[in-house]
Description:
Bound molecules: pyridoxal-5'-phosphate
Largest sheet: 6 strands, mixed
Number of domains: 2
Number of helices: 15
CATH architecture of the largest domain: 3-Layer(aba) Sandwich
Radius of gyration: 19 Å
CATH class of the largest domain: Alpha Beta
Structural class: alpha/beta
Shape: globular
Amino acid sequence: MARVEIAAIEDAARRIAGHVRRTPTVPSSALSELCGVPVHLKLEHWQETGAFKLRGATNAVLSLDGPERERGVVAASTGNHGRALAHAAKKAGARCVVCLSNLVPANKREAITALGAELRVVGRSQDDAQVEVDRLARDEGMVPLPPFDHPAIIAGQGTIGLEIVEDVPEVETVLVPLSGGGLIAGIAAAVKAKRPRARVIGVSMQRGAAMQASLAAGRPVEVEELPSLADSLGGGIGPDNRFTFAMTRDLVDEVVLLSEAEIAAGIRHAYFAEREIVEGAAAVGIAALLAGKVDASGPTVALLSGRNIAMDLHARVVAGANGLEDAA
Ligand SMILES: *Cc1c(COP(=O)(O)O)cnc(C)c1O
């Protein structure tokens, strides 16, 4: 089976050191008291570009050989991965093209060009944008770097797992936001290699949990994509998934699903009790603890994965809104 091993994650850690932030892990007295076990927060939302995706993107870009770097990298993401890839490519002096559809609003387009990436605007959907990615790879030899299902991306995200074990050697439970599974596959590979008895738990939103549905079906399946406070957790895992489905199935102990109101409560707890601004996707570990949906039986680490939330939405959630409709 195709799987990313600990050696590749340790290589990634050496490769990206000095290029990404080494984020801290801090105790949460509020959550420790609530759960009756020591709870720590891994503050990865402090990562440059505002999300952990810079680790995978940096590892992938720095792994290119000279001619590949010359031809450049291409992706179809307008979210945290697109931002991270643009940033990593610029720092490495590599060309970066981000393909997107006509539906992507102007402010998101400008954010990508501001990071030094070129834009290709094609068609009316993410699928149309992906067709352009495939064409640029075929015709111009550009290197496609997808957001999760790629060994160098998984290895880069896995470096978070090494840091968690370094900072909390006694860790027994790790809570990880889960969408396409690049993050949890890398972290689980690292944590299980170092602490075989520690549990790694994925947390997704009930609205469109593609990995959970795929695990239940025993193969990658599509789910309807619905608007969620945890927008960075939306999207499928890909019908031809090569790495993250199998790694999640084999390495992850449990997947927990949350309602929008539970995610909102997680954002509020992060803000009021921890004084951290996080996006919905990053609040799910805290939210799962607050909702009593995980059995925190020993020292626990919840990963805060990003902070790229529209601040007007954040303000409305902090003021009590329990979902997107509620905040509208
Ligand atoms: C991408 C992302 C995730 C999920 O990562 P996957 O590798 O797709 O599972 C979680 N949180 C944030 C902030 C993200 O940007």
